[in-house]
Amino acid sequence: MQKQVSVMSMNLSAKLDDLQRGDRHLETTVALCEIRTQLQELTKSVESCQTEVSEVKRDMVAIKHELDTVQQVKEEIEELREYVDRLEEHTHRRKLRLLEQGLTFFLTYAIFAAVLGMLQFGYNTGVINAPEVNIENFMKDVYKDRYGEDISEEFIQQLYSVAVSIFAIGGMLGGFSGGWMANRFGRKGGLLLNNVLGISGACLMGFTKMSHSYEMLFLGRFIIGVNCGLNTSLVPMYISEIAPLNLRGGLGTVNQLAVTVGLLLSQVLGIEQILGTNDGWPVLLGLAICPAVLQLLLLPICPESPRYLLITKQWEEEARKALRRLRASNQVEEDIEEMRAEERAQQSESSISTIELICSPTLRAPLIIGIVMQLSQQFSGINAVFYYSTSLFMSSGLTEESAKFATIGIGAIMVVMTLVSIPLMDRTGRRTLHLYGLGGMFIFSIFITISFLIKASTTRHNYFHYQNKQASEVALKRFTVPIASRRRSAK
């Protein structure tokens, strides 16, 4: 722009000099027109320059505004970083305080009162094992009194299988409704109401022989199965929600310990010296009322789950009272903040349907892992031990009394291994310990199968040998009797 103005100025100066010299060849009018044209171009150039200067000023103002915005954002980021650092430090201190919490007397009392439900589950899982022969004899007597004829062995085995399996059907229904019951009545309230089913089922099983009806046994087993299915949902939920953060993993094994103790207790009481008799087996089944009644007496003193009170019911003060009783301390703000953080995390997560869960590529791996973990437990073969170990030992050649004692040995081993697994979980890891257990069950299941195949082949061989021996004896008699008669007649 400056160059253009300089050139035009030089041109004007040259024209004026020519006019002053009075050049004859240059007309004055033409010179003035050229001067006017040059001035117009100069004016336009000046206006264009002013426009460009204005645009530059606007750009500089915009740049300055953007710089101010960047600076403001930078300051906000620094403040946010400081806030996050303070929050992380506060969270770290809160976790350290949570990890310092331990078992209190009232927390131990609440866990014991709740875990009676899992003791109920273990007891009713194993109680049907030992008195199998007594129950089958009872069914035979009832059938003969009703219809005046003996029942076939195949049908009596089917009836006994119904008595065993209907417990699992009830457990499945109870397990499905556990979540609804926990949210509708609370964890503690659900456990208290569930004991009504436990008492009803135990009474039906206890009065089975008195009523002379094996249908009452089926109904009692079904109801007690629903009770145990609800317990498998409500008890772990209640214990995990009242336990401190640092004890949740260890206290989770208390459920399995109670199950194995219940199994062992039912097996010990089922021997012939105690209740494994024709008169004692109804009492053995009816003793399932004891955990339900004991829980009804102990659990009302315990508080409701603080997490349920705070998150589901939004009763913050009630949750604080429950935490103060469980922690034996007034410093419960860390627990409240932890539950609030859990609530915010739950609200931020989007809910999906079952179809979306199955079709989601990101959730497919966790879903498969969860299903395989459950199937590995249910298909491991341990259920056959729970329900039929006595008959399995008897079929292998043991007497009924020895078979019951062998079953007790299995229950004792389960209790011991449950206690051993508690410290091993933190040392070896859950996955490694689970794989070791599955590997052992796989190998010994093969051994059990081979042993039964050998037993079956030996029995079949002995049977054929016995049949051949009988046939030989019959043939020998047929051959020797005519000879002896001919000798007597000859004499």
From TrEMBL:
The keyword rRNA processing does not apply. Residues 39-93 form a coiled coil. One of its GO terms (cellular component) is plasma membrane. It is found in: Membrane. The chain crosses the membrane at residues 103-123, 159-182, 189-207, 219-239, 251-269, 281-301, 403-422, 434-454. It holds the Pfam family Sugar_tr. Belongs to the major facilitator superfamily. Sugar transporter (TC 2.A.1.1) family. This is Major facilitator superfamily (MFS) profile domain-containing protein.
